[in-house]
Amino acid sequence: MARSSKPVKAATTRTESKKSKSDQAEQPREETLVGRSSRTAFALLVAGLVAAWCVTEPRPIAENDLPEHSPDVAAGEQVFWAGGCASCHASQVDGKRAKDEKKLLLGGGLELDTPYGVFHVPNISPHAEDGIGAWSMIEFVNAMQHGVSPDGRHYYPSFPYTSYARMTVEDVMDLKVYLDTLPSVAGRAAIHALDFPWTLRRGIGAWKWRYLSAEPVMKLMSADTIVERGRELVEGAGHCGECHTERDRFGGMIADRWLAGAPNPEGPGRIPNITPAGKNIAEWSVADIAYYLESGFTPEYDTVGGSMVAVQENMAMLTKADRRAIASYLKSIPALSNQPVQ
Amino acid sequence: MSYSTQFRIIFLTITLAFMPAALADDDPRHERHELMEGVGKAAKPVGKMLKGDSDFDVDVLMESLRTWRDVSMVFGDLFPAGSETGNDTEAAPAIWEDRAGFEEALGNFRDATAAALAASPTTLEEARPVVGPIFKTCKGCHDTYRIEKE
Fold first, then answer.
1. Cβ-based contacts of B139 with chain A (< 8 Å)
2. Is residue B47 within 8 angstroms of chain A, CB to CB?
3. Whether A138 and A244 share a structural domain
4. Rounded distance between C-alpha atoms, residue A75 and residue A177, angstroms
5. For the domain bounded by B28-145, which CATH number is listed?
6. pTM for the complete prediction?
7. Burial label, B124 (beta-carbon count in 10 A; 0-12, 13-18, 19+)
8. Does A33 share its domain with A110?
9. Bridge partners, A93 (sequence order)
10. Which domain holds residue A51?
11. Is the ipTM of this complex over 0.85?
12. Which residues in chain A have Cβ-Cβ distances shorter than 8 Å to B40?
């Protein structure tokens, strides 16, 4: 954008100066007006470009901004399951979802077919060239919470950093040292095949300006440490809103529809409403929800289905207390009807 | 109206009343759905016992085990060609694409149930290790061979 704006500026100035010499005698008044309005338009254009440039600039944080924290591998493993990293990044096995210990082979390669084009999930194993093994702590934190790659480019929000931005930096640091312990996997995923204009990464800056915030979605009415922990898990690492919240036409989550269900991105039907007005959350107790996340069984002993299967298996790896916290949070948020946005 | 005419009307009414159910039961999509509902109903009280939400009841457990065994014996026959879609079936195309895999998943359910019946547990402690594996086979099969309908 900067490069193209310079020639435009030069050309405009040249035309103006030529005109003013030859036409001055015949139409002095009109020329002044034209000159003034085109100067104003030009000034607005430049101001607009400067503003757009500033707004769309990737904004990583500096190494000094990291808190004093000795990262812990065991805590990082819990963050790994809460964050559902394996659901997208574990390489498929014979074209099927990885199971059990294969979930720790984070070679990527999964294709996400979206309205914007096809995303190819990258390798985040500790492989030095193909994965993220060579990344520093600050590079990892910037990727996870600010959506900025080590070479300073925006990531597409198909990588749910909009949610991860709400995690504590300490959790992200723990996750990094845990990921470092996993097996190294060779191989790089294909480059995203997106439709224009989504190919212009710089534009994501504007999207972030509007949608990326570390602030919690829900303000809690009372200080309840369990609900607060649930909020941290649901709104942050768990990134539940990414599927359960309807999006606006720019792909940003609609805050007023938080967790009230959304069209299923992978096929027909809808992702369920998990506010207290949603059928399941209304009828299930906190214990029922926690047991569902642990075992995959509903209170009627039907089993979890669809894309929630992988999520439930991740939640099963958390502590009982954390599953109860998630359930308590879901029971505490505002009840919203299933009515989709028109 | 003679007694026999009255009888005939009652007989016909009853027959007609049950006709839709009788017809529907010829539909494997309906039959397998009903059987699976029964499996879930049988699981509920057993799940509660395992969780400690209700007292251990050996009769209820054995009843459920028998229900599961009966279903596991016939369930695989209810997926003939032509019943792949329609009637709100939640059967996944994978059943017909990978029949061997489906039979194996169903076999796991049958084997686990048979093993639990053979063990015939009389206490919660005895039940846990033999009933737990049955529950695992539900999800093991659903993950691949059932599609999610809202």
1. 296-297, 303-304, 309
2. yes
3. no
4. 10
5. 1.20.120.10
6. 0.82
7. middle
8. no
9. A96
10. 1-9+29-55
11. no
12. 300-302
Cα angle: A167, vertex A170, A172; to 5 degrees: 60
Facing residues of B102 across strands? Answer: none
Q: What is the mean pLDDT of each run of 10 residues along chain B (150 residues)?
A: 63 54 68 94 95 94 97 94 89 93 96 96 95 93 82
Domain count, chain A: 3
How far apart are the C-alpha atoms of B84 and B95, rounded to whole Å? 9
Inter-chain CB proximity A303 and B138 less than 8 Å: yes
> A-B interface: how many C-beta pairs under 8 angstroms?
36
For residue A21, being part of any structural domain is answered with: no
| Exposure string for A42-69, b = 16+ CB within 10 A, e = fewer | eeeeeeebeebeeebebebeeeeeeeee
Interior angle at CA B138, CA B135 and CA B143, nearest 5: 135
- Inter-chain CB proximity B44 and A300 less than 8 Å: yes
Cβ neighbours of B146 in A, within 8 Å: 305
A303 shares contact with chain B (CB less than 8 Å): yes
Same domain, A191 and A111: yes
Number of residues written out for chain B:
150
